[in-house]
Design a protein that fits this description.
- The protein is globular.
- The two termini are about 40 Å apart.
- By secondary structure, the chain is mainly α.
- α1 packs antiparallel against α12 and α6 runs parallel beside α9.
């Protein structure tokens, strides 16, 4: 059953649409969360540090790739809102082929950059080989990840946020079973965790692809639609590249920050990794509302429902900030207990780093709610260049902490790198949103007069 975002009560529709997205995000995150817990408990602290230390590099390469697919499908949602079925199917088919081609190209680049990036980040010698092995296997799955993300985004673009959830449930079960078998049973170490992730994501991609291409009643993608056209590809790249650049720019900041964290040793890396994983769980409700808002905005922007769109964004903003306050409470109260799931034995140095990080994030968590709402709103309207500008703000925030304040204050500065990045991204996003809103409403008044 699809959720109608063009009519009815908008806030209720967005929340109902976003709930399966949140559940899907939780399941997708489960790949990382389960891998980290099993690796930390079955192999040890060094292995957890190795898997955790590659997060920023993985975001730099894989995040940039997935950012492209997020942009490709904006045109599909807008065409759906316009009611232009032929255009919608052509955009959808073109996005699939484009995602596959770019994914295959990125695999080659990723393997070339893997070890040099690990060395650039000053990854400790005792974990660099494990980190490289883990990454090199994960990178074989980049085309699969891009296709999976693209298929799921296509379903959501036409109002179906539930099917991706069902497919991910199957893949998560496969991932958990294979993690226990490969890591706990066969003793393959971090390599086993990587293969478990790849196989489970392949299963999810095949299920999502079959549904979009064969069973989706709104989309009717033909073989002709799958043949890429230069004009359409350029239009989709115009949407996708700024989002991809945002991921790339922010990941550069994260990698620089990871370099600072790596200088504090394996225990602090493990604590930072575990706390970051816990934080990412509380990110999911705000992120889900953001993605739901983006789809709502894309469809209503395409349909010309501007009043409905802007009034609803204001209400979602209030809800997202309220959710961020609740998440802050959970980070402080439940977060430390969640961190212990990653540890086979008590380690005070790991807990010290983790607790300090969680407290710093909790104090400033509403800043990330602002980021999700306005970034996704502008993205839904097609103004994806705002993502790049916000990404530059995030980069500056993390760079200043990593290169300057971490040397003066120490690990405490690292804990506030995220909030600093969010604040410097929020400011331009709010300004751009208010400017675009004023222009759109002014043009509408001129057209009606």
């Amino acid at each position: 059953m699809k959720n109608d975002l063009l009519t009815g009560k908008p806030v209720k529709s967005i929340i109902l649409f976003a709930l399966p997205i949140m559940a899907s995000s939780m399941l997708q995150y489960n790949y990382v969360f389960v891998d980290n817990i099993i690796v930390g408990r079955f192999i040890g602290t060094d292995a957890l540090a190795a898997v955790g230390s590659v997060g920023s590099i993985n975001s730099f390469i894989v995040g940039a790739a997935l950012g492209l697919t997020a942009g490709f499908t904006i045109t599909v949602a807008q065409s759906f809102g316009e009611g232009n079925v032929k255009k919608m199917n052509k955009f959808a088919g073109n996005s699939i082929t484009l995602a596959l081609i770019i994914g295959l190209a990125i695999v080659i680049v990723a393997h070339i950059l893997c070890v040099p990036l690990l060395r650039l980040l000053k990854t400790p010698d005792n974990i660099i080989d494990m980190a490289a092995s883990y990454l090199n296997i994960l990178y074989f799955c980049i085309p699969v990840q891009m296709l999976l993300n693209n298929f799921n985004a296509l379903s959501r673009a036409v109002g179906d946020s539930k099917k991706p959830l069902y497919f991910l449930i199957v893949s998560v079960i496969i991932n958990l079973c294979l993690d226990l078998l490969f890591v706990g049973g066969f003793k393959w170490g971090v390599v086993g965790a990587a293969w478990a992730t790849n196989i489970s994501q392949l299963c999810a991609m095949l299920l999502a692809g079959f549904d979009v291409l064969k069973r989706n009643k709104t989309l009717n993608i033909t073989k002709k639609d799958l043949i890429p056209e230069t004009k359409i590809s350029l239009a989709q790249l115009k949407m996708g590249v700024p989002i991809s650049l945002q991921f790339t720019i922010t990941s550069i900041g994260s990698m620089t920050l990871q370099t600072a964290v790596n200088g504090f040793g394996s225990s602090v890396i493990a604590g930072f990794t575990a706390a970051s994983r816990v934080e990412q769980i509380t990110n999911i409700p705000m992120s889900g509302l953001g993605v739901g808002t983006m789809t709502f905005v894309s469809q209503n922007y395409g349909a010309g429902n501007y009043d409905r769109m802007f009034k609803t964004v204001r209400k979602i903003f209030i809800i997202d900030v309220a959710v961020s306050v609740l998440c802050s409470v959970l980070l402080v109260s439940v977060g430390p207990y969640a961190v212990r799931l990653f540890m086979s034995e008590n380690n005070e140095e790991i807990m010290f780093a983790a607790v300090h990080y969680l407290r710093a994030i909790a104090i400033c968590y509403s800043l990330v709610a602002v980021l999700f709402v306005f970034r996704n709103t502008l993205q839904g309207m097609g103004f994806t260049f705002a993502n790049t500008i916000a990404g530059a703000g995030e980069l500056f925030g993390r760079l200043s902490v990593a290169l300057i304040f971490s040397r003066i204050i120490g690990f405490e500065a690292v804990c506030f790198a995220g909030p600093a990045a969010w604040l410097l991204a929020d400011i331009p996003l709010i300004i751009i949103y208010l400017f675009k809103k004023k222009n759109i409403l002014s043009n509408r008044i001129e057209e009606s007069s």
